[in-house]
């Protein structure tokens, strides 16, 4: 059984619609994927419809951007994958709406700054291209820059302009991670820390802080992720065993926004079983086990 627990659709910053994502997963021979768009559950219904009558199952989820103390007096961004929670849970609905509105304002502001500096990007056109109420993300602006021949690729647009050290980067006010863990637990879901030690992405938390999150109800850690090398994975695997956290593996597929293939990294069936056993908020879409 091949299981990929971290993918993005056009409802956030992927390039496949939820239905295309399902088709892509089937073509790749996968049995289960999780749909984990940033700060939205808007793709769930389309994914549920698309798997009907196929052999694929979809774990409904989301990826929440959070802020976390790094244990050294500073704060770092961490990504929390949330699975099988109730999407109608009030606190979550309110917080996700806040985050989406903030993401849209920020994306527009970044585009306005670039346009003011003479870049051929149109903030109105950029925003009009997003699905209604979608959070959007820097990859949308990166693609606009590629289309305008201002960068050769999405990666290059990030490296030159949009990365966290870049001239046009604007920060977000994310959810405190302990609050996010609590909100997902209250909504009957489970949480997995996404790419916890992906150091190339920027500052990360330390092992001690992972222990603290575990003590506050974190369910798992993403061990096998394209942005983590083998020594890092070994360290995380050890940490998961020590802290009784569920180890997962996933591609973090974003369609053509990244070069990663769906199913490039996978999760063991027993890990999915351990996660699902903790959840009461919603059910896996598709044929039953
Ligand atoms: P945002 O959520 O708007 O802050 O943008 C972050 C998103 O951009 C991440 O979720 C990734 O999908 C994507 N991303 C970050 N760094 C890069 C990069 N170097 N190349 C391509 N995509 C990236
Ligand atoms: Fe993303
Ligand atoms: Fe992430
Ligand atoms: Zn992701």
Write the layout of secondary structure elements.
Layout: E1 3-7, H1 18-27, E2 32-35, H2 44-51, E3 57-69, E4 75-83, H3 90-116, H4 123-128, H5 138-147, H6 154-162, E5 175-176, H7 177-186, E6 190-194, H8 207-215, E7 220-224, H9 230-243, E8 246-249, H10 269-277
Parallel strand pairs: 1-2, 2-3, 3-5, 6-7, 7-8
Antiparallel strand pairs: 3-4, 4-6
Bound molecules: adenosine monophosphate (AMP), fe (iii) ion (2 copies) and zinc ion.
Which descriptors apply to this entry?
eight-stranded mixed β-sheet; 289 residues; single chain; DNA polymerase, domain 1; binds zinc ion; 16% strand; alpha/beta; binds fe (iii) ion; binds adenosine monophosphate
Short description:
The chain is of the alpha/beta class and 289 residues long. The chain has ten helices and eight strands.
Q: Can you put this structure into words, describing what you see?
A:
The protein is α/β, with parallel strands linked by helices and 289 residues long. It has a domain at 101-162: DNA polymerase, domain 1. It is built from ten helices and eight strands. Strands 1, 2, 3, 4, 5, 6, 7 and 8 form an eight-stranded mixed beta sheet that branches. Strand 2 (32-35), helix 2 and strand 3 (57-69) form a beta-alpha-beta unit. Helix 5 (138-147) packs across helix 6. It is globular, with a radius of gyration of 18 Å. It starts with a strand and ends in a 12-residue tail after the last helix. The model has no long low-confidence stretch (mean pLDDT 96). Bound molecules: adenosine monophosphate, fe (iii) ion (2 copies) and zinc ion. The site of zinc ion (ZN) has 4 residues, from loops.
């Amino acid at each position: 059984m091949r299981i990929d627990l971290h993918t993005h659709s056009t409802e956030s910053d992927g390039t496949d619609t939820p239905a295309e994502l399902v088709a892509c997963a089937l073509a790749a021979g996968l049995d289960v994927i999780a749909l984990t768009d940033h700060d939205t559950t808007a793709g769930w219904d389309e994914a549920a419809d698309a798997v009907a009558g196929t052999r694929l199952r979809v774990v409904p989820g989301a990826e929440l951007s959070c802020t976390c103390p790094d244990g050294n007096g500073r704060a770092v961004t961490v990504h929390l994958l949330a699975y099988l929670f109730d999407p109608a849970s009030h606190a979550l609905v309110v917080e996700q709406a806040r985050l989406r509105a903030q993401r849209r304002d920020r994306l527009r502001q970044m585009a306005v700054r670039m346009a003011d500096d003479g870049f051929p990007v149109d903030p109105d056109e950029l925003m009009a291209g997003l699905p209604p109420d979608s959070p959007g993300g820097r990859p949308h602006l990166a693609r606009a820059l590629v289309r305008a021949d201002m960068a050769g690729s999405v990666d290059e647009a990030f490296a030159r302009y949009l990365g966290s050290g870049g001239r046009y980067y604007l920060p977000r006010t994310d959810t405190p991670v302990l609050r996010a863990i609590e909100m997902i637990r209250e909504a009957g879901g489970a949480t997995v820390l996404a790419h916890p030690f992906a150091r190339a992405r920027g500052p990360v938390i330390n092992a001690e802080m992972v222990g603290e999150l575990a003590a506050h109800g974190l369910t798992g850690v993403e061990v096998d992720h394209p942005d983590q090398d083998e020594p890092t994975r070994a360290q995380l695997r050890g940490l998961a065993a020590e802290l009784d956290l569920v180890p997962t593996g996933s591609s973090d597929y974003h369609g053509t926004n990244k070069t990663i293939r769906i199913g490039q990294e996978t999760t063991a069936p027993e890990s999915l079983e351990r996660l699902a056993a903790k959840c009461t908020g919603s059910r896996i879409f598709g044929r039953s086990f």
